[in-house]
């Protein structure tokens, strides 16, 4: 068992001042499980035959259907009996940019159901579309945030019902972000990558600043919009930049490289996993108006070649991550490659994990799937530490595949979405439930 302790927690209560209207309130609540701590888990396959499953969403319908997003442009349903239904709930493969089957970060990347989905049948997706004729020369694709509606058959959506809410031109193929989630405030939160390339520079990146620090662009941000107000959407009145001249009012937080999965826990805290570059991976607790440092810093340290400033262009402080780790361990062996955001566990199957943040790393190797599952917890002083969870029955104690995402069902149980393939191809993608280790 490997334990690492985050070297940062400069962020404490002061950075988590109440922002009740944003649905993200108060200081972290420490929960010390009364049960024995969990160090070993089992991964139980509940669905297979998928192609690059990259997200799991629920519709809060009162029945435990799990909607699985396949990167290639389909959404599949796993019903309450853990049966993968035939056909697709949504199939928009024809709307996507052409994907590279060997490896690609683009595709259908995000899904969220309206809080009143039972009544209005509305849901939202995030995907890479081909670059339109009006797109900047040399750009790769464009991000579409779109609304669709379900048909009278709850297992089928209307693929022709698309209403485009937001269009963002993407200069390069990598760093797309793509997480969608509704907060308790009823607003939709959206993660958008910095545009791609490396160092947040090059074609389509703001010179001497980078997109993530540039408040005039949506790239490198977490957005917050009102899908029930305005045309095509409204801006929440308490978004942090509504009164900042020249800034995009959709922005909720900035200074982010490529948030690959965020989640909002029952206390309203937003945990965001920001994939690092060459040095380290990080988890941030995101609040309204926070600047999380990229491209000035990569985690806590200065980015190699960066300016190493202490604040953003507007003088705002840079908020440190609560958890970070290097790509190699203390012996120099591979430790991780790209962080995968998860969830604060509040299910019943693993009482010793309750209140802990469960997340993952994609793989220790770029060529062979070797993902890792972690659990993190906070002490009374506000410091976070994390440990690797050993996967029972796997040869190396890890996931044994590329971990593409984690998911959470309506009962609070967690899932690992993975594939043995590097790219969005084949049909060996799986959904596995995190369960107690076998006796």
Structural commentary:
- Strands 1, 2, 19, 20, 21, 22, 23, 24 and 25 form a nine-stranded mixed β-sheet that branches.
- Helix content is 1%, strand content 36%.
- The longest helix has 4 residues.
- The N terminus is likely disordered.
- It has 439 residues and is mainly beta.
CATH superfamily of the domain at 9-36 and 63-341: TolB, C-terminal domain
- Radius of gyration, whole Å: 20 Å
Between the first and last Cα atoms, what is the distance in angstroms? 18 Å
CATH class identity of the domain at 9-36 and 63-341:
Mainly Beta
Which of globular, elongated, flat, extended, rod-shaped describes the shape?
globular
Which topology of the domain at 9-36 and 63-341 does CATH recognise? Neuraminidase
């Amino acid at each position: 068992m490997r334990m690492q302790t985050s070297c940062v927690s400069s962020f404490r209560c002061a950075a988590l001042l109440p922002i009740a209207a944003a649905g993200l309130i108060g200081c972290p609540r420490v929960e010390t499980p009364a049960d024995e701590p969990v160090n070993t888990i089992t991964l139980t396959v509940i669905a297979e035959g998928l192609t690059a499953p990259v997200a799991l969403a629920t519709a809060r319908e009162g029945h435990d259907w799990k909607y699985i997003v396949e990167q290639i442009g389909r959404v599949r349903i796993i019903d309450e009996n853990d049966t993968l239904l035939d056909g697709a709930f949504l199939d928009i493969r024809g709307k996507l940019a052409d994907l590279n089957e060997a490896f690609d970060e683009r595709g259908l990347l995000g899904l969220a159901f309206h809080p009143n989905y039972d009544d209005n049948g509305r849901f939202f997706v995030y995907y890479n579309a081909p670059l339109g004729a009006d797109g900047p020369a040399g750009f790769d694709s464009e991000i579409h945030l779109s609304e669709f509606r379900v048909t009278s058959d709850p297992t089928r959506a209307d693929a022709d019902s698309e209403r485009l809410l937001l269009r963002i031109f993407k200069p390069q193929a990598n760093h797309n972000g793509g997480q969608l989630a509704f907060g308790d405030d009823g607003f939709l939160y959206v993660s958008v990558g910095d545009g791609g390339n490396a160092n947040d520079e090059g074609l389509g990146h703001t010179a001497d600043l980078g997109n993530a620090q540039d408040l005039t662009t949506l790239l490198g941000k977490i957005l917050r919009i009102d899908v029930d107000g305005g045309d095509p959407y409204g801006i929440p009145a308490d978004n942090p930049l509504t009164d900042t001249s020249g800034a995009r009012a959709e922005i909720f937080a900035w200074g982010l490289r490529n948030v690959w999965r965020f989640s909002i826990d029952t206390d309203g805290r937003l945990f965001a996993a920001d994939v690092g570059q060459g040095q380290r991976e990080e988890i941030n607790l995101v609040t309204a108006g926070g600047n999380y440092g990229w491209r000035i810093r990569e985690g806590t340290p200065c980015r190699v070649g960066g300016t190493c400033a202490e604040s953003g262009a507007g003088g705002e402080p840079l908020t440190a991550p609560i958890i970070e780790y290097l790509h190699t361990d203390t012996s120099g062996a591979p430790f991780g490659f790209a962080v995968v955001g998860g969830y604060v566990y509040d299910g019943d199957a693993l009482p010793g994990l309750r209140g802990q943040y469960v997340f993952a790393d994609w793989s220790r190797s770029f060529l062979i799937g070797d993902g890792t599952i972690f659990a993190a917890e906070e002490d009374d002083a506000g410091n976070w530490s994390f440990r690797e969870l050993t996967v029972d029955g796997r040869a190396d104690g890890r996931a044994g595949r590329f971990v593409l995402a984690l998911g959470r069902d309506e009962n609070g149980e967690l899932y690992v979405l993975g594939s043995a393939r590097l790219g969005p191809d084949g049909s060996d993608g799986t959904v596995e439930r995190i369960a107690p280790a076998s006796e």
